[in-house]
Amino acid sequence: MDMLAAARAGEHALLVAPTGAGKTLAGFLPTLTDLIEIPMEGLHTLYVSPLKALAVDVRRNLLTPIEEMGLPIRVETRTGDTPSDRKARQRARPPQILLTTPESLSLLLSYPDSFLLFANLKTVIVDEVHAFATQKRGDLLSLSLARLQAINPALRRVALSATVADIDAYRAWLAPDGDINAVTPVIGEAGADPNVAILIPEGRIPWSGHSGKYAARQVMAEIERRSTTLVFCNTRGLAELIFQELWSANEANLPIAIHHGSLSIEARRKVESAMAAGKLRALVATASLDLGVDWGNVDCVIQMGAPKGSSRLLQRIGRANHQLDMPSEAILIPGNRFEYLEARAALDAVEEGERDADDFRPGSLDVLAQHIMGLACAAPFREEDLLREVRSALPYSALTEEAFANVLHFIEGGGYALRAYDRFKRLTRDEDGAWRVSHPRFIQQHRMNAGIIVDQPVLDVRFANGRKLGTVEESFAATLRPGDSFFFSGMALEVVRIELTDLVVRATAKQARIPSWGGTRMAMSTRLADRVRHFLAEPDEWHRFPEDVREWLEMQKHRSALPQPGQLLIETFPHEGRHYLVCYSFEGWNAHQSLGMLLTRRMDAQGLMPLGFVSNDYALAVYGMKPVTDPQSLFSADILDHEFIDWVEQSSLLKRAFRDVAVISGLIERQHPGKRKTGRQVTFSTDLIYDVLRKYEPGHMLLKAAWADARARMTDVGRLGDLIDRASATMLHVSLDRVSPLAVPVLIIIGREQVAQAAAEDALLIEAEALVAEAMRPD
């Protein structure tokens, strides 16, 4: 009723309530009440979701009470999957309730009739606001909300979430002009505590790996004794792998399926409908189903591998027993011993109500460029008016006049170095000072290419009859030849031929491999990392752990050391003719990858002859021909000023970041009328422009945006910087005569990365057992 009271008072509202508490219905209650009391034609409420599947699911659940009450209220979805004829009809005759995504909303605002469409809009509901508020999609949505508020100043904003750590930060993000007091916080009742267990496998917890596939038979046994189980994996490749492992263990031949973002629309919709109808016993899924999808018949959630964050875990747990008064049931399957500690840390965080911190940052300029171009497609604008509107969105509240002018001039002609090319002259300034689109072709170009999510270049996976199964990335397709086979959509497929944009396949019974997808791996949150460090430093906690985990930690304490919270443990030791340095920093795989690059460059400069490095979320191991006797010199603070900048500029990292911002800002097209650019064509175009700008205009807006992306997202440089800052003062260097127990999980990766997988399992197993025996020997 608090949501209804806020609506009656015309107040913006942020509803934070546990999964299963009925947040979505509470968000829509004022809309339904209003439409019952004062029926109207035209758009009343806009619902914005981070996922297409969530919009479809909400529509299905919303239609039930509307139809039961016989209300003349139309509810429709508008996403990238919506047919073009329906999109056109929605603009001419909109429903009272429209369910959409940030990208589709942005496109709606690019039409001249958007002023009429949204003139009487009463409410915008942003669902699962935590999923995108701190990202570029959140930047785009905040700008769209500012435009909607400008069209109708009486518009009311509502946001919903189950996992918000800093309520006031989200209130400020949601409010016009960041006015936190304009948003009423509504806190839902706490539901039943979840029932979460960590599965202890038959035998012992593995030393390495992150998939949890060793437990496939036990997971299948859990599936067999339940009605419906959701099996979450952290990546698409892992989902394909786990599905195959479960299918091999599925002796009862139960109906199980797979769902992830690279599958075709038809495949995803078929699976979603089957789940809603209760026809599946298990569904293997990724983050494509993390949020809000309400399938009441799910009675257990299984997380394969570590959850990486307490908020993500809580969100996934909430998919089971989707009712407030019933405890959600979940099982965690740690992939290795470190992941056991992480899983235990996540359970403790959930029990104590701790959420992962959210990192709000200034809005991205490439997103702003796309938004401005979209608004120009709808109508000419004056610079001072639009700047005032843009600043009313919190991420852009500190935007300077100079920065805004730079963005405008970038859209006007591409910048100084590109001003001679007509294809970059998208905006023109009239004599009266108004900005307008230079030519109608740029309007079509914008609408075909707008969007914030820049996927890796992909090929469509198709059968010879044309049926599309989904997409794989070009980088993976480039490793395939006709006759090769791979798992996709739960099937083994053989490559028939590779065309410009298609990978033509047929079903096969051959041995197959798992596709790899790019993208940043999810890193363990800093709060979970702190809890794992606490476990290592507190032997009194170890009685809670399985016997083999206790033995591992006790032997580490006996033979070397365990880092105290805030301390950076560095071990050095020889092993099989090489010298190793292992750094236990717990800053996540992404930051460790960057640090490995920097350390090997610095070791090379010191004549230490580095050979390579490997990392996981918890540790980084660098190995070479000479011993490291002074690790302090490798971790000095200037590494981020010298080696980091040099490495980023010479690597492909910055070029990849530039490709993304060039696409988002509209400088480079992904689509032309009647054809789609291949990933290679897009990359070739952006590489050319990148080289020109670096040479002739190094201060260009897009280069700055690319640097910001490369630093903040692609390398976790914030966590890397924190690590370097504390290294000198907190380093504990232990020189050993052989490998330590704590080093085993990361060292095992070296063999797995260097040797072909199919032929080497037995050899790797023997090698790993020898490594473990050496590390766990007490003398």
UniProtKB/TrEMBL annotation:
GO MF annotation terms: ATP binding; ATP hydrolysis activity; DNA binding; helicase activity
A biological process term (GO) from this entry: DNA repair
The keyword Hydrolase appears for this protein: yes
Domain Helicase C-terminal span(s) in chain numbering: 215-358
PROSITE patterns in the cross-refs: HELICASE_ATP_BIND_1 (PS51192), HELICASE_CTER (PS51194)
Lineage top rank: taxon: Bacteria
Keywords: ATP-binding, DNA damage, DNA repair, DNA-binding, Helicase, Hydrolase, Isomerase, Nucleotide-binding
Residue stretches making up the Helicase ATP-binding domain: 4-182
Segment forming the signal sequence: none
A Pfam short name: WHD_Lhr
Residue ranges the record marks as coiled coil: none
Annotated CDD domains: DEXHc_LHR-like
Protein's UniProt keywords contain Nucleotide-binding: yes
Family the entry assigns: Belongs to the Lhr helicase family. Lhr-Core subfamily.
PANTHER family: ATP-DEPENDENT HELICASE LHR-RELATED-RELATED, LARGE ATP-DEPENDENT HELICASE-RELATED PROTEIN
Name of the protein in its database record: Helicase
Organism: Sphingobium quisquiliarum P25
Species classification: Bacteria, Pseudomonadati, Pseudomonadota, Alphaproteobacteria, Sphingomonadales
